[in-house]
Every structure is written in structure tokens, then in C-alpha cells.
Specification:
alpha/beta; Rossmann fold; 7-stranded parallel sheet; about 650 residues; Leucine-rich Repeat Variant
Length: about 650
């Protein structure tokens, strides 16, 4: 009786290609193997599976939406898909199911689990996870799987010890290294040309498409440079209205940038590339996403690459994938950025000129390219497709479970997977020398994440982005932080001043800083006024005499603010900003009997600072200190206000001496 293998997974080529690679390996091991692919009729598997000779059975499914009305069509589609999958499983009675992820696989996985629970079937389930972080579907599938094979050793930590096995990424035979000369003849490219192959997956990647289009003019100015670009398109345009159409996007972009590039003979653009092997073989440099499939194919081809990982995916798994190659010196990584100043446009991008500069630096360094190519060829350390067949044999009771030797551990990226609070905490630890400083790749990733926070529609993210900007010393963000300090939500305005204070006084011109401080000190939100006053204390020395006096006058008025926090901050700032006794001494005098002892405690700091700076003499300072009421209703572990007084007195006496 033939062994019947049912494969499922898809939506994108990244889920389909490993399934096809496994099918090829199983066909070599079992001559009587019979295959069937289950997926959607309008996604990658609908084209790729039949082309590989695998019959396709269609089911209904759709991606998990956010909570809301979208759950209704999702539930209906999934329910229909499960019913369809039950019919397929009962009709074909597979010997083994191989699932490679994507919401496409959900109906089959759940239907098989139902049949097994009812004892109507006992078909084992083998799951493969391509990325370093378990996808949402595979997190579900892992609960019902007999075995979960992973591409990266670190993924094993997310699985029960009895279920996980490392095999690597199965690379399809069609993407094994080809003949460079034949490939160039086939594509009509000269033998001595320098060829860039850029693609973003079967459906295209907007960031790569636009970056290459923006860089094309600069690159093609070199007479020997050729560009092959796989732009992507929906698999079924009629059923995919509203989805991204890569080829159309590139054509429209070129029309905006330079319409002459549309007919440039050395710029070869395709919506869908059928013969990836020829494009790989003809290329000198690859530009791609950091999906595990793309990266492993690049490594199988031993090609140097520029990798642009998709930002803000669960667990930063594309960034993790890219860093594996970067540490091996097989690629260079460019992180997506978001322009927070471009209001309402949260589209990630990579600047075209930056991409073009990096491409030419690599193309102009043949020794570096060769070293990157050799390093890429050493990244793949296992025959993943063969190991998957061993896993299949184990589940069929025909062999032992494979136990490949795990690759050595790699350093852990501290920024990887961190959300805003985690990044802020890490930077505080770096500032306090608890953690070592960020290295260059960590900082690049951090700034990419900060851009996303600053451009977020959620005010909580923008506020945290402002704080992290200051902690990270991200000076390029100063203009947008300045705008947020006066025009955004109250909490964001507050934290924008924290960010400006962290960046230091030199990030803005004195006139800009003065205007921003004035608006902040008159803000209707008390915490924004408080942070503006604290920022004035740091930035005052950069202002000229007239600007400082204008700020000082406002701070003096803030000593009568209804909020004691604002009075405290204004009191401290006056000690830093004042360049003459009045109106400072009069303003501070009103606080000597303030109802809040913490405000009176700040007076000691202000008078001591004024004395240190020579604005008031020691006698005046001592008299002012003696007049402050030092009673307090809060002692905590020590009598804080008395300690402040004693410290201030010592400073004044040192000045007098």
C-alpha cells in the first residue's frame, strides 16, 4: 500500500517552498509515495504546488483578525475550512501530515486533531517552523503535533523537550547553485556585468521595491551594473483587491523618480520570477528580506547579500534571522525606518541613496564579496530535507529520531524582541553602567524601533519613544521631539521635554529652544510645565542674556503655580538660569513657608546654586537659608529637608571661604 503524504501550509512562498523541498526528499526515500497539497486557491500554493507536480485540494481559511466584527467572517471561514479538511482527510486517509505554517494550515491541523480525539484516525502530524520565533499558527499546531522540526536551535526553547528537534531549513532542489555563464546567456546579461538581484518574496516587499527603484538611477549610472528585480504581485488579483501589488508600485514609483528608467535595458523587472535559480546564478549581490527561506536559499547559492528584515514582527524573528548571517559575515543588514515627521504616513522605508551607496561599496570590493560568499556557504550546516525524512520515518515507526549536532550558541542580542518598556529599562541600565553600551548593530535596531514608536498612532507609544530618544541620545530625532513638545497629546508633551533634556542642549538652536521652553512653561498640563522647567535648568547656559531673562521671568511666575511639582521644578531651574538677583529672590522668597515641605527643600538647592554662581553673596544666601521653614510631615528614613539645609549651608560657607 503506498504511503500517502498530505502537505499543508502557505499563503506566501516562504511556507510553501520548505514543504516542496520535503516532498522532494520523501519522493526520493519512498518510491511509492503519493502526495497531496492542501491550501487556498488564490495564494502561493495554488501556483507552486501544481507546478511541482502535487495535486491541490482547496480549503477555506483566513488570517486571525484583531478583536471586533472581523472575528465573524474569520470564524465562518475557518469553520467551513475545517469541514472541507475533514472531507479531504477521510477521503484520502493520509499516512502522514506535514504542516509548514501559515493560517492556510489551520483547517487541516484542527480537523486532524478532531479525528484523532474521536479515534476516527491516528495520522501523525509533523510540523516545520522556518523562523527563529514560532509563528502564530505553529504555536497552535505544536499543541497537536507529534514532532516539531525547527530551523534555528533557539526555537527549541519554545517547545516541550519531547516534541522539538533541530533540522535546519529544507532548501528546494531547484535553488541549488547553477551555472553562472549559462544563466547570464539565458537572461541576456553580459559575462562581465555586475548584477544585483533584488526581491521581496512572491508577493513583493514595499520597502525593497521602493528602495531599489529610488536607488536605480544612481546604480545604473555605472555602465556595467544590471538590476534584476522581482517586484511581486497578488496571486489572484480579482480575489485580492486592496492587497499590495509590487509590480504596479514599482512602475508608479519609477514614473515619479525618473520615467526613463521604465525602459532602461539594464533594469529587468518581473512581477513573479519562475526561474529563481537562474537569477541567483547570474547575480553578484542579492537584496532580500530576512525570511528564513530567502536567507537559506542565498546561503545555498553562496551569495553575498544585503538583508532588509521586516520590522516589528513577533519576536523580531526576521531580525534574528538576519543577525545569524551578519555575525557569520555573510551579509550586511539595513533596518527599516519610519519617518515620524511625515504625519499620518507610517510606511517603513530604506532611503534609496543609502542602499545605493552600500551596494556600490560591496560591488567595488571583489575580495569582500568573495569573503561574504564563502561565509554564506558555511551557514548551512545540515541537510534539512533529509533530516525531515528521518523525522517522517520515525513517526511512521520506521527508524530512530534524528539527533543532529546542534550548531554552537551565538551571542544574544539585547534589543531583540524588546518592547518599549524593555528598551527603556535596558538603556537606563546602560546609563547606570549596569549593562555595557550597545554595539553598532544593537543601536541600529534600537533606532529603527524608536522611529516606529514616534510615528505610532498610539500616544502611549509616542510618549515612550520620546523618553527612549533621550536615553539613546538619538539626536536626529530632535526636530520631531521638539514638535511633539508643543503640539502633541499632554502626556507626549511631557515626555518630549524629557527626551529633549536627555539629548542635551546642543540639539536645537537657542532661539528654537527658547520658544519651545516658553510654550512648555505655559502648557495647560502641569506635568508638561514641570518637565519644561526641568529642561530649562539643563539648557539655560546656551541661551543669550535676553533669552535667559525671558525664561527666568516665566520661571519666577511659575513659583506661584497651583501644582507643587511645578513650583519645585521652577525653584530648582531658577538657581541655574538667573543671571541677576531679581526677580528671582522675590519669587523664591514666597516659597519659604510653602505648605509642601518638598518645595521648601528645593529652595536650599536654589539658594546654594545662586551662591555658587556668584549671583548672590554669601551673607544674602545665609540669611535666605535661615529664613526657610524646615518642618516636614515626611521623614521617611531620614530627615530629608534638614539634610538639604545642611548641605546648602556647607556650599555657601565654601563659597564664602
Amino acid at each position: 500500500m503506498p504511503r500517502r503524504f498530505l502537505l499543508t501550509g502557505g499563503g506566501t512562498g516562504g511556507h510553501v517552498t520548505p514543504a516542496l523541498a520535503v516532498a522532494g526528499a520523501l519522493a526520493q526515500k519512498y518510491e511509492d509515495a503519493d502526495f497531496r497539497y492542501v491550501g487556498l486557491g488564490d495564494k502561493a500554493e495554488a501556483i507552486m504546488a501544481p507546478k511541482a507536480g502535487l495535486p491541490l485540494s482547496r480549503v477555506s481559511s483566513r488570517g486571525m483578525p484583531s478583536p471586533g466584527l472581523g472575528l465573524i467572517p474569520f470564524a465562518f471561514s475557518l469553520g467551513l475550512g475545517i469541514v472541507q479538511a475533514l472531507g479531504i482527510l477521510l477521503r484520502h486517509r493520509p499516512t502522514l501530515i506535514v504542516a509548514t505554517g501559515g493560517y492556510v494550515a489551520a483547517p487541516v491541523v484542527l480537523a486532524n486533531a478532531m479525528l484523532r480525539s474521536l479515534r476516527l484516525a491516528k495520522t501523525p502530524l509533523l510540523v516545520h517552523e522556518q523562523n527563529s520565533h514560532l509563528g502564530r499558527m505553529n504555536q497552535l499546531a505544536a499543541r497537536f503535533a507529534d514532532l516539531v522540526a525547527v530551523s534555528f536551535p533557539e526555537t527549541l526553547k519554545q517547545l516541550p523537550a519531547s516534541k522539538g528537534v533541530w533540522v535546519g531549513y529544507p532548501v528546494r532542489q531547484s535553488c541549488q547553485p547553477g551555472d553562472r555563464h549559462e544563466a547570464r546567456q539565458q537572461l541576456g546579461i553580459p559575462a562581465d556585468a555586475r548584477v544585483i538581484f533584488a526581491f521581496g518574496g512572491s508577493q513583493g516587499a514595499r520597502t525593497i521595491n521602493r528602495a531599489v527603484a529610488d536607488a536605480a538611477g544612481q546604480l545604473l549610472a555605472h555602465d556595467d551594473v544590471w538590476i534584476i528585480q522581482g517586484c511581486g504581485r497578488p496571486f489572484n488579483e480579482r480575489a485580492s483587491r486592496g492587497t499590495y501589488h509590487g509590480y504596479k508600485d514599482v512602475e508608479e514609483r519609477l514614473q515619479e523618480v525618473d520615467a526613463t528608467l521604465l525602459k532602461h535595458p539594464r533594469y529587468l523587472r518581473h512581477d513573479f520570477i519562475d526561474d529563481m535559480a537562474a537569477c541567483y546564478a547570474a547575480s553578484d549581490l542579492v537584496i532580500c528580506r530576512a525570511g528564513a527561506g530567502s536567507l537559506m536559499e542565498v546561503c545555498a547559492q553562496s551569495k553575498p547579500a544585503i538583508v532588509i528584515p521586516k520590522a516589528n514582527l513577533p519576536g523580531d524573528h526576521q531580525v534574528r534571522n538576519a543577525r545569524v548571517l551578519e555575525r557569520a559575515r555573510a551579509c550586511r543588514v539595513l533596518y527599516e525606518r519610519i519617518d515620524p515627521a511625515n504625519s499620518g504616513q507610517n510606511t517603513p522605508f530604506v532611503p534609496g541613496p543609502r542602499l545605493a551607496d552600500l551596494v556600490m561599496r560591496i560591488l567595488d570590493a571583489p575580495e569582500q564579496r568573495q569573503a561574504m560568499a564563502e561565509a554564506a556557504g558555511k551557514v548551512i550546516t545540515s541537510d534539512a530535507a533529509s533530516l525531515m525524512t528521518e523525522c517522517a520515518a520515525y513517526l511512521l515507526g520506521e527508524g530512530p529520531l534524528p539527533e543532529p549536532e546542534l550548531p554552537r550558541d551565538v551571542p544574544v542580542d539585547r534589543i531583540m524582541g524588546l518592547r518599549a518598556m524593555g528598551m527603556e529599562r535596558l538603556l537606563q541600565q546602560v546609563s547606570n553602567e549596569i549593562e555595557p553600551p550597545l554595539d553598532a548593530p544593537e543601536r541600529e535596531l534600537l533606532l529603527s524601533k524608536v522611529d516606529g514608536l514616534l510615528a505610532s498612532p498610539a500616544w502611549v507609544d509616542r510618549a515612550r519613544g520620546c523618553r527612549i530618544t533621550g536615553l539613546a541620545g538619538y539626536r536626529d530625532a530632535a526636530p520631531i521631539i521638539q514638535t511633539m513638545a508643543t503640539e502633541d497629546e499632554p502626556m507626549v508633551r511631557r515626555d518630549a521635554f524629557k527626551g529633549l533634556r536627555g539629548l542635551g542642549p546642543a540639539v536645537l538652536a537657542p532661539a528654537e529652544m527658547k520658544d519651545t521652553l516658553i510654550q512648555g512653561l505655559d502648557d495647560n498640563y502641569y506635568e508638561a510645565r514641570m518637565e519644561a522647567a526641568a529642561t530649562a535648568a539643563v539648557c539655560a547656559h546656551r541661551l543669550d542674556t535676553d533669552q535667559r531673562r525671558e525664561i527666568t521671568d516665566i520661571l519666577a511666575r511659575r513659583c506661584r503655580d497651583m501644582s507643587f511639582e511645578v513650583r519645585m521644578a521652577a525653584c530648582r531651574a531658577l538657581g541655574k538660569t538667573a543671571d541677576q538677583p531679581e526677580p528671582v529672590m522675590t519669587a523664591l522668597d514666597r516659597l519659604k513657608y510653602d505648605a509642601v515641605w518638598k518645595v521648601r527643600g528645593r529652595l536650599f538647592d536654589a539658594y546654594a546654586e545662586l551662591s555658587d554662581r556668584g549671583i548672590i553673596d554669601a551673607v544674602t544666601a545665609q540669611e535666605a537659608l535661615d529664613a526657610i521653614l524646615i518642618t516636614a510631615n515626611g521623614y521617611l528614613t531620614e530627615y530629608q529637608i534638614r539634610h538639604r539645609r545642611n548641605d546648602a549651608v556647607r556650599r555657601v560657607k565654601r563659597r564664602e571661604a
